[in-house]
Design goal:
6-stranded mixed beta sheet
């Protein structure tokens, strides 16, 4: 794994990575900021037992990627031109159990990952781009080993999010590496139930919709103040918004994360240690990382290494997909656009404009 200390070297000469829509472009910072709040809390003279509690939340659920992914020679190699760039797989998980139980009273067995972003932090650590991978994308799952030692054979044309449900986050990392030939340095998984607790702890989050949600959580276009339960429904919404596909869900999840960050900043939580600790405790309980990031100290080092990233320089791109001809309820990666995108991530190059428009979005 790559060490996350501050980078040697500055921004890339002539870099022209574009900031698209700011609401989507700052996805990475929206997720990292709460983690950095945990770091600030730990560094602010909080009693050792509080620090130990938060630190234990992280260590208890850590994933040892080196052990899980096996032989180093079978993993992608880092391109020389990528320098000190880092790649982080961010998963939003939803177990539909306990605090994650379906809000409508229904139930669904097994864990899911309804959000997946491969976040590329460019060399010099002043820019980043996040690639959204739609959950309905058909992929080839590599052979993986479960935590109990059970070997799960490779399979073709499986839904991307089924990899997490059936085998877990380490196999999701392996799948992303296989489909992209991009080395994943770190894993960060956030349980959606954690969002519910955070939203309630800060008294709600205000979101703005340009178009209504017409089924499930019914909301008109305009501003809405969501509590924890409503926020959980919001990030799960698929049917009744846009074309009812996973692409609309991605849009809503990105919108919610942006609103959450705005609320945290608006309330100036750094000035309220008690409220900040409650949020930090809930966040770390719902946060799973690879073993190298599984401590407040490691998160602090990681945060320091990316503090030069300006939200205005952020970029978010969706993996170019089109509806599958055999199953219109699924999507497949579009070539050569997908390969061009992965090559740009792998070599730390500018994202080609030609890959930004996904055929499935029309």
């Amino acid at each position: 794994m790559t060490h996350t200390s501050a980078p040697a070297g500055g921004p890339r000469p002539g870099s022209r990575r574009r900031a698209r829509t700011r609401g989507r472009g700052s996805t990475f910072r929206r997720v990292v900021l709460p983690v950095l709040l945990v770091v600030v809390l730990a560094a602010g003279g909080t009693a050792w037992w509080l620090y130990r509690g938060l630190d234990g939340n992280l260590k208890d659920s850590a994933v040892d990627l080196d052990k899980a992914l096996g032989d180093e020679k079978n993993r992608p190699r880092r391109a020389a031109e990528a320098g000190d760039a880092l790649n982080l797989l961010l998963l939003g998980s939803d177990s539909r159990a306990g605090a994650n139980a379906a809000p409508d009273g229904g139930s669904a067995a097994g864990a899911r990952s309804d959000t997946a972003l491969l976040v590329h932090i460019a060399r010099g650590r002043t820019e980043a781009v996040a690639v959204s991978i739609p959950r309905d994308t058909l992929v080839t799952r590599p052979e993986c080993t479960k935590s109990d030692g059970t070997v799960v054979p490779s399979a073709r044309r499986v839904m991307f999010n089924s990899v997490y449900a059936q085998v877990g986050s380490a196999c999701t990392v392996k799948t992303v590496e296989q489909m992209s030939d991009v080395r994943v340095d770190h894993l960060v998984e956030v349980d959606f139930a954690g969002f519910k607790g955070i939203v309630d702890a800060i008294g709600g989050v205000t979101v703005r919709l340009e178009r209504p949600i017409t089924s499930g959580l019914r909301l008109d276009a305009g501003e809405h103040r969501l509590d924890g339960d409503e926020a959980l429904k919001f990030v799960r919404t698929r049917h009744g918004y846009g074309d009812g596909s996973d692409l609309g869900r991605i849009e809503l999840q990105q919108k919610f994360l942006g609103a959450l960050l705005a609320e945290i900043k608006r309330q100036d939580l750094l000035g309220s240690p008690a409220k900040l600790y409650r949020i930090a405790d809930r966040l770390t309980e719902s946060l799973t990382t690879d073993s190298e990031l599984a401590s407040l100290t490691a998160l602090a080092e990681f945060g320091q290494s990316v503090e030069g990233i300006d939200p205005a320089a952020m970029d978010t791109v969706m993996l170019p997909v089109e509806y599958d001809r055999a199953d219109p309820n699924r999507v497949v990666a579009v070539e050569p656009s997908a390969s061009l995108l992965w090559e740009a991530i792998r070599t730390d190059a500018e994202i080609p404009e030609s890959v930004r428009r996904s055929p499935a979005r029309g």
